[in-house]
Amino acid sequence: MDHLRLLTDLHRHAARQGPGGEAESRQAMRLAGLAPSRPLEIADIGCGTGAAAILLAKELDAHVTAVDFLPEFLDELRSRAHSQGVADKITTCACSMDALPFADAYFDVIWSEGAIYNMGFEAGVSTWRRLLKPGGMLVVSEITWLGATRPPEIQAHWEGEYPQIDVASAKIAILERHGYSPWGYFVLPRHCWTEHYYRPMQRRFHAFLERHGRSDAARAVVEAEKTEIAMYETHGEHYGYGVYVAKNIGR
Ligand SMILES: C[S@@+](CC[C@H](N)C(=O)[O-])C[C@H]1O[C@@H](n2cnc3c(N)ncnc32)[C@H](O)[C@@H]1O
Questions:
Q1: CB of 140 closer than 6 A to ligand 1?
Q2: Has residue 56 been placed in a domain?
Q3: Where in the sequence is the domain holding 146, given as residue range(s)?
Q4: Is there a domain that residue 201 lies in?
Q5: How large a percentage of the chain has pLDDT more than 70?
Q6: CA atoms within 13 A on the CB side of 64
Q7: 3-state SS assignment for residue 155
Q8: How far is CA 158 from the centre of its chain?
């Protein structure tokens, strides 16, 4: 089984595939001024198994288009949405975030948690803006340096993994350059990484390895996740997920 299939298998039965939390998604909703008082078209891009899409569907008068390129995650999302009574408010789309098949100005809100790095922050926010109505809101979380300096080993690690990692002021400047007005920013607290993402993942390691006969490839997947977790435990005060809320003010 190839690496992507193994990663998909490790994560497909999880409630979320990256750091986050319901309280923090609600905080972002408040900053974006989203309330159930008007019907909304929302795209959740890189939705995974639907942590945000399902919450948005439950709490707002919204139709959510949940986009991910992995059909296995979308299958799980539909099943979770069904059991939580919001299946009729969510449509899934198996497509790539860099070629979204939607009309210009179709969405009131573009939401994306922990996923925009797959195409890069600047490419994502600039490409997706055409999908937003004038005055529409963008809510996106992005790996961010939490201060101006950090130890060389964590700098080197992230420059290898994601060279676009930067401080919040640089990300906000990108938003401004691409036709957005910044409306809010906050950092996901530590428990969004540890209690909501890493601990549940660690609890899945044993069954995952057994399912794959403890193959070299499966063990390599687990080792890579353990390295990421150890990195966060050692250096997590230097980086985090920034949540950026911005309004489309471009033409
Ligand atoms: C770190 S996970 C975050 C998932 C979810 N938003 C969450 O917070 O639980 C990133 C997601 O982006 C999806 N993804 C990666 N590359 C993609 C692409 N090119 N197009 C669409 N989805 C993509 C992955 O399948 C995965 O579900």
A1: no
A2: yes
A3: 15-189+238-248
A4: no
A5: 100
A6: 30
A7: helix
A8: 18
